[in-house]
């Protein structure tokens, strides 16, 4: 074989695609219930859009983006996430002009050049939603509740929600100063990665995966103790609304997230069913992002969830989508009947019924085996005898019963 798929990418095979369609349909139904409308943005954008939104110093922008120069020498990047593109589209198309609150959802592939492992790919899929135009805690909680509703609708119950407030442009710089000062006192004991972050992005040090870093920073000051009044009130309201909605959560003052655009609420939904890559979904508020990208000051909040990770849980728990097998398989007993079989299969399909027949000129025995393999609900064998009498025996392949059917009634029979 000369070519293989690129490291960190995966085919979604025919045997898996019904599971994907099931997840996508469930997700769309829930988004619809919350009155979010789909937005589809291009898969590639100007590199600057992501560098500006996600932050130059983040891992995503610093080392994970698929960036290239196109033939016009423009720097292009395959989108590593959806929020930046949605904000670009929101500004460019004046989506906020006709409505005070824009509620959109998206689904599609994202690209990050990370080290592939279970649950971590280089082309992966996300579904996500953004509510743009509202500063209220009610909106944060709608976003969180909607993400959780999708997991519930899929039968996934084993997850936990962690929330934090990362402050705003007023209280965060003050806290960062205090934290960097405290971190500098232990700098030489921290991992190399964390040492690099002390000055520019000290909050990420608290999020370090290094066990020694975790121990060393266990008693460092937390942002939640330094929030200004507005941020603190907002956080209190989020917590009390989550409680009112009956959504359990834990406050994790060390939750920072790997994207720089967040203000106030940040959250993550994790599952113990996953290995080290345990984040099912993440999100938060980004009140400065639209302005940062050249739009009018517009607050926003959203989330995104990894579909491959969700699939891993569905598989582990044996959650199967409803199967979409043919309703009827029509087998031709002889060559003379083939044309009737083909045209009748076609008429059934035109009438909206999933019908299958043989295209490989197989023996009757092989055709019946195929009908079983396809898990067709019914099978009908047609030969010269049936065509002459105008009647056939319709076999139910599930319970092995059979009944006589008048061939000219076949469409009405299946349309009932
Ligand atoms: P994120 O935390 O970078 O947030 O990604 C969201 C989810 O995408 C993760 O929780 C994970 O399930 C999945 N994911 C991320 N990277 C990979 C990967 N390499 N392989 C497989 N799955 C992955 C965002 O992307 C933000 N845009 C979320 C957001 C929306 N914030 C506000 N609005």
What is shown here, in short?
By secondary structure, the protein is of the alpha+beta class. 38% of the residues lie in helices and 21% in strands.
Q: How would you characterize the overall build of this protein?
A:
The chain is an alpha+beta fold. The chain has two domains: 14-171 and 227-317, Bira Bifunctional Protein, Domain 2 (BirA Bifunctional Protein, domain 2, 2-Layer Sandwich); 328-415, Rossmann fold, CATH 3.40.50.800. The protein has helices at residues 14-33, 47-54, 59-64, 83-92, 137-153, 171-184, 192-200, 203-206, 211-216, 229-244, 289-292, 307-316, 338-350, 364-373, 384-389, 410-415; strands at 37-38, 44-46, 66-69, 75-78, 102-111, 123-132, 160-165, 250-251, 263-270, 279-285, 300-306, 328-332, 355-357, 378-382, 391-396, 402-406. It has an eight-stranded mixed sheet. Strands 13-12-14-15-16 form a five-stranded mixed sheet, with helices on both faces. The longest helix is centred in the first third of the chain and has 20 residues, at 14-33. The chain is elongated. The two termini are 49 Å apart. The mean pLDDT is 96. Histidyl-adenosine monophosphate binds at residues 81-83, 112, 114, 119-121, 124, 126, 128, 130, 258-259, 279-284, 302-306, 308-309.
């Amino acid at each position: 074989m000369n070519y293989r798929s690129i490291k960190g990418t995966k085919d979604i095979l025919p045997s898996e695609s019904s599971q994907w369609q099931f997840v996508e349909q469930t997700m769309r139904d829930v988004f619809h219930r919350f009155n979010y409308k789909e937005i589809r943005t291009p898969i590639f954008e100007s590199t600057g859009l992501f560098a500006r939104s996600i932050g130059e110093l983040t891992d995503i922008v610093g080392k994970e983006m698929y960036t290239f120069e196109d033939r016009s020498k423009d720097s292009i990047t395959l989108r590593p996430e959806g929020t930046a593109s949605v904000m670009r589209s929101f500004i460019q198309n004046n989506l906020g002009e006709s409505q005070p609150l824009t509620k959109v959802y998206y689904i599609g592939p994202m690209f990050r050049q990370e080290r592939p492992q279970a649950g971590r790919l280089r082309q992966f899929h996300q579904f996500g939603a953004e509510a743009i135009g509202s500063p209220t805690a009610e909106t944060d909680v709608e976003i969180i509740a909607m993400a959780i509703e999708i997991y519930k609708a899929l039968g996934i119950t084993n997850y936990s929600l962690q929330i934090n407030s990362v402050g705003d442009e007023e209280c965060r710089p003050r806290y960062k100063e205090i934290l960097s000062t405290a971190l500098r006192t232990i700098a030489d004991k921290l991992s190399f990665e964390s040492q690099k972050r002390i000055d520019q992005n000290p909050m990420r040090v608290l999020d370090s995966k290094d066990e020694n870093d975790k121990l060393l920073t266990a008693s460092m000051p937390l942002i939640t103790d330094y929030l200004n009044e507005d941020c603190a009130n907002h956080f209190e309201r989020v917590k009390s609304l989550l409680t009112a909605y009956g959504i359990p959560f834990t406050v994790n003052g060390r939750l920072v997230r790997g994207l720089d655009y967040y203000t106030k609420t940040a959250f993550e939904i994790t599952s113990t069913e996953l290995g080290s890559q345990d984040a099912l979904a993440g999100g938060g508020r980004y009140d400065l992002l639209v302005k940062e990208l050249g739009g009018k000051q517009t607050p926003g909040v959203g989330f995104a969830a990894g579909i491959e990770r969700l699939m891993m849980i569905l598989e582990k728990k044996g959650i199967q989508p409803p199967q979409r097998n043919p309703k009827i398989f029509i087998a031709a007993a002889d060559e003379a009947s083939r044309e009737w079989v083909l045209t009748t299969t076609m008429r059934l399909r035109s009438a909206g019924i999933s019908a299958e027949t043989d295209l490989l000129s197989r023996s009757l025995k092989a055709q019946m085996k195929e009908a079983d393999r396809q898990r067709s609900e019914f099978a009908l064998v047609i030969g010269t005898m049936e065509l002459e009498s105008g009647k056939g025996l319709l076999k139910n392949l599930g319970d092995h019963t059979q009944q006589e059917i008048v061939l000219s009634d076949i469409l009405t029979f299946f349309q009932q």
